[in-house]
Specification:
Chains A, B: This is 3-hydroxypropanoate dehydrogenase. The structure is a homodimer of 213-residue chains. Chain A contains 10 helices and 5 strands. Chain A has 213 residues and is α+β, with helices and mostly antiparallel strands.
Chain lengths: 213, 213
């Protein structure tokens, strides 16, 4: 199927024709979407976040373990506590975004395995007996889910501003006092304001990333 | 904008209307797509992998650092070496998939920062002086890119079978003898065969994952 790709060079377009995803969806999720550093005042509703979650929850994790947990920082008091933990420039962005989400791995995800992976009875115990494996699996899979979530924000027509520059132990302490969660990213969400981003940065070429053996 | 979502309940559909992504694209990437355990013989071409990479390369990483490296296991000799390192049931799946990709984090990603993040001159040295931070950033960001890649495979109309059950040190040794890479996932890729998957497993509800403060 030949499609039109106005934003692509001829060289790129010959490969894009191998995609089944429509050019509009390619642009919405990948090619035109950008990490936003500034947002309009338009609020992000509960319904929008539900729509995002109900889409991205279907993407795969190991043993369907789904360790991602999301805290929506809605109150000014909680926003203040979060901003305190952010690094440098991230403080200002986190102060002004319409919605800020803290994305963390729940290292007690194994308590849900009986429900989400019911055909393997010993799954919970396997992880209960090995803290290192449990934490590793929580971090790996919740990080996959952070990526799915970022693309889900874009699927809702919003811009995401994911950040890893913060005091992780501080965010864990403030937002997950049970000690069983590890914060992976903080994501600003909203409609991008004018001048929300700089020029696009270069990406590595295929031949710098992909080899065949 | 009201859209039709044949595969959704009325409860889900009211939220899906908040998505800008078309229902067809939602299905292709998330709702109808499944982790495949069996594939047809149809080969996966170089052009298809290029199309996938040229799409997903645009998704965000911290400081645009792009640590993901991909090895396409094309030769029978290399396939044999990989299968040797896979666990249990993954051996058979990895033996028969049309294409298998090893996805790893390059812990020397900082050598590219001068090119991919040129406006911050000290970026390379910041990471060169801190092995722990460098390895952490490589793993976190390459894992995000693994998730983008899985969705990219689906965007090409193919099915992915991502696996984390393998001897990671063994795969690193066999495929990255420089000692600077950490394998994150092995992904089988192809057209799903009949009976490629079991019934869909349950996902956690919104209220089990998302809280607001």
């Amino acid at each position: 199927m030949t499609q039109t790709h106005d934003s692509l060079t001829d060289f790129e377009a010959q490969f894009a024709d191998h995609l089944e995803l429509s050019p509009e969806a390619q642009d919405l999720l990948f090619r035109a979407a950008r990490t936003a550093n500034a947002f309009t005042d338009e609020p992000v509703s509960e319904e929008q976040v539900r729509a995002i979650y109900d889409l991205v929850k279907w993407a795969p994790t190991s043993m369907n373990n789904q360790p991602l947990r999301i805290v929506l920082v809605r109150s000014p008091e909680a926003r203040g506590r979060l901003v305190e933990q952010m690094s440098g420039n991230n403080k200002a962005k986190t102060s002004t975004a319409p919605l800020v989400a803290v994305l963390a791995a729940d290292t007690d995800f194994h308590d849900e395995l009986g429900k989400v992976f019911p055909h393997f009875e010993g799954a919970r115990d396997l992880f209960a007996g090995n803290d290192e494996m449990r934490e590793g699996s929580a971090l790996l899979n919740a990080t996959l889910q952070v990526a799915y979530f970022i693309l889900g924000v874009r699927a809702a027509g919003l811009a995401a501003g994911p950040m890893t520059g913060f005091d992780a132990a501080g965010v864990d302490r403030e937002f997950f006092p049970d000690g069983a969660h590890r914060t992976i990213a903080v994501v600003n969400i909203g409609r991008p304001a004018e001048g929300a981003w700089m020029d696009r940065l270069p990406r590595l070429d295929y031949d710098e990333v992909v080899t065949a053996v």
